[in-house]
Specification:
Distance between the termini: 84 Å
Shape: elongated
Pfam families: FeoB_C (PF07664), FeoB_Cyto (PF17910), FeoB_N (PF02421), Gate (PF07670)
Structural class: alpha/beta
Binding site for GTP: 11-18, 36-40, 57-60, 117-120
Subcellular location: Cell membrane
Radius of gyration: 29 Å
Keywords: Cell membrane, GTP-binding, Ion transport, Iron, Iron transport, Magnesium, Membrane, Metal-binding, Nucleotide-binding, Transmembrane, Transmembrane helix, Transport
Transmembrane segments: 340-365, 385-407, 451-471, 509-530, 550-568, 575-594, 614-634, 646-668
């Protein structure tokens, strides 16, 4: 008998799956990606009674219907990899919803162990669950635990060992569908090639018109006999239920209702804290009004608290750069190290405090139970623009920094919703653009400076919503996914869980996106110190006359005719190139290119821009190319194809908006 087993953890979001994974595996964790997709894959190991167990943490899903990438990953893994055991974690306080996934796993014929987590909370809510009766009805082992308090973990490990040794699959009967299921199975079993699958699962999925299973049987020898019979069944079921698949869903819930009625007893009593809070926090009107200050506090906490730490990191790397420059006599090597590599690493690490405090705040809200309610509150408004309610958190985070905002889309289950939210996120004006607005608004619109800066933020929001509606209709051609969200009980967050989740998310960014950012900074350095005539010297970084002969200047002068309708010279165009490294670099680049300090720049640009061309420049800086860090994280999350798509559409959109502002502005003023 094998001394190593492979087990999979699966459950709805917010059931405590990650907490249980950590409790089982400790520090023996390996993080990668699932093959062919950018969804994170987490694996770990533990030993018990001399046996080794490899634990695969499957994405959190509500069902295995395979409408989202997470559902596809979970389904394909269970069917194709055939783990020795599937550990299904369910929230004991919401058994009705959680058992839906359990039934689907049973349909697949998997070897299942059901874990009822949060039993301590269930008891507090006056719920009594008859574990023995539940085991008897389902025909599988059931283990009650509290992952947070580490209650029942040893019992779970013992049950895992017993269940992997005694593999078995259990069946749940669907009274109104059994005749159809048996008839289809009798046809499927005549094809030897299909016997490697669970035939009952195939039969149920054929009744649900599941594309994955239809593809499995389309080349089968029994297709000719199966198709007319299946068509007749579908017509018959459609008359009863409207759609056959809806009938299956309804049947599952009938079975679940009967199970819960038999095994769960609830003591009547006063309203719980969760119920009282939800009466206020999820109210259609009051909930939205309260959501605004909650998000503002999240935003305020993240960037105010992280600000000094980011400034300190920036100072340290600036100091290191100066030390390197003064210590190494070879100017090329010293500049490469100081202005290229050290600045590149600094550009990565300066994000560390922002990411750390953002993910700390998000993890805190997640563990408290409030985070799950935010999409529920915002869903109706967001749907009008083709966005799901869950998009609101990443979009609001974009006002601070688009990098962690894009990473925050990981909470979205539907892949198309997630891609759409990521694509429009760079249109939300991050804090790095503020120095640009402040420079131009102060120089050209001093009497209305605050209003002009605010208009940039408003323009970004309006464009994001319009683009979302357009992409939803013409690119994705689907409706935003229905909001199915577990509303867990409110609780005091557990610091160890919050800190562990924070570190895992920050480390993922630094590991994957960091290399691209460093590479981008070094590339811009090389373009600045080299030109068509060869090496210009590091003086080019400080001398505008020398820089005018660099590749950066060549690119700027090449772009200049394209932007001549807006009235921008080659120096303004070159500064936009530097802005790809980080948007706040645009101001420093303009100062360098015009040969003045940042303090005297506002006086000089009055001669290089008009109020109209300045406003158009501000709008272009809002919309055009994402910074290298944002582009890197887009690539990390959804791949190069969408990163390039985002890059192209934003440049085109920026040009159209800037040109429109220029034309209309010149007609009015």
């Amino acid at each position: 008998m094998s001394d190593k087993y492979e087990i999979a953890l699966i459950g709805n979001p917010n059931v405590g799956k990650s907490t249980l994974f950590n409790a089982l595996t400790g520090e023996n964790v390996y993080i990668g990606n699932w093959p062919g997709v950018t969804v994170e894959k987490k694996e770990g190991e533990f030993e018990y009674n001399g046996k080794k167990f490899k634990v695969v943490d499957l994405p959190g899903v509500y069902s295995l219907t395979a409408d989202s990438i997470d559902e596809i990953i979970a389904r394909d893994y269970i069917i194709n990899e055939k783990p020795d055991l599937v550990v299904n974690i369910a929230d004991a306080t919401a058994l009705e919803r959680n058992l839906y996934l359990t039934l689907q796993l049973m349909e697949m014929g998997a070897n299942i162990l059901l874990v009822l987590n949060k039993m301590d909370l269930a008891n507090k809510l006056g719920m009594e669950i008859d574990i023995n009766k539940l085991e008897k009805i389902l025909g599988i082992k059931v283990v009650p635990i509290s992952a947070v308090k580490k209650i029942g973990i040893e019992d779970l490990k013992k049950a895992i060992l017993e269940t992997v040794k005694n593999k078995k699959s259990a069946e749940i009967r669907y009274p109104h569908f059994e005749p159809y299921i048996k008839k289809i199975i009798s046809i499927l079993e005549k094809d030897e090639g299909l016997k490697k699958y669970n035939l009952r699962y195939l039969a149920i999925k054929l009744l649900e018109n599941d594309k994955y299973v239809l593809d499995i049987v389309k080349n089968s020898s029994i297709l000719g006999k199966l198709k007319p019979i299946l068509d007749d069944m579908m017509k018959e079921l459609s008359k009863k239920y409207g759609e056959a698949e809806l009938g299956i869903v309804e049947e599952r819930y009938k079975v679940i209702d009967k199970i819960v009625e038999e095994v769960v007893k609830k003591k009547s009593g006063k309203l719980t804290t969760t119920q009282m809070l939800d009466d206020v926090l999820t109210d259609e009107k009051v909930g939205i009004l309260l959501l605004i200050p909650f998000l503002w506090m999240l935003f305020k906490f993240t960037f105010d608290v992280s600000g000094p730490f980011s400034a300190m990191i920036d100072y340290i790397f600036s100091f290191l750069a100066e030390v390197v420059k003064s210590s190494i006599s070879n100017e090329f090597i010293s500049s490469l190290l100081a202005d290229g590599i050290i600045s590149g690493v600094g550009a990565v690490l300066v994000f560390f405090p922002i990411l750390a405090f953002l993910f700390f705040a998000l993890s805190f809200l997640e563990d408290s139970g409030y985070m799950a309610r935010i999409p529920f509150i915002a869903d109706r408004f967001m749907n009008k623009f083709g966005l799901p309610g869950k998009a609101i958190i990443p979009l609001v985070m974009g006002f601070g920094c688009n990098v962690p905002a894009i990473m925050a889309t990981r909470t979205m289950e539907n892949e198309k919703d997630r891609i759409l939210t990521i694509l429009i996120n760079p249109l939300m004006s991050c804090s790095a653009r503020l120095p640009i607005y402040a420079l131009f608004a102060g120089a050209f619109f001093s009497a209305y400076q605050g209003l002009v800066v605010l208009s940039m933020y408003a323009l970004g929001v309006v464009l994001a919503l319009i683009i979302a509606a357009i992409f939803r209709k013409f690119v994705f051609k689907t409706s935003p996914s229905y909001l199915i969200v577990e509303l867990p009980s409110y609780q005091i967050p557990h610091l160890n869980i919050v800190l562990k989740n924070t570190w895992e998310r920050v480390y993922s960014f630094l590991r994957k996106a960091g290399t691209i950012i460093v590479f981008g900074v070094i590339l811009v350095w090389l373009l600045s110190v080299y030109g068509p005539s060869g090496y210009l010297g590091v003086e080019a970084l400080e001398n505008p006359q020398i820089l005018a002969n660099s590749y950066v200047a060549v690119i700027g002068k090449t772009l200049s005719p394209i932007f001549s309708p807006m009235g921008w010279d080659w120096k303004a165009c070159s500064a936009l190139l530097f802005g790809v490294v980080a948007k706040e670099v645009v101001v420093g680049s303009l100062a360098m290119l015009y040969g003045v300090g940042e303090e005297g720049l506002s006086n000089l640009i009055v001669n290089a821009f008009t109020p109209v061309s300045a406003y158009a420049y501000m709008a272009f800086c809002l919309i055009y190319l994402p910074c290298i860090a944002t582009l890197a994280v887009i690539k990390q999350e959804i791949g190069w194809k969408w990163a390039i798509f985002a890059l192209v559409y934003e440049v085109v959109l920026a040009y159209i908006v800037a040109l429109t502002i220029t034309v209309v502005g010149n007609l009015i003023f």
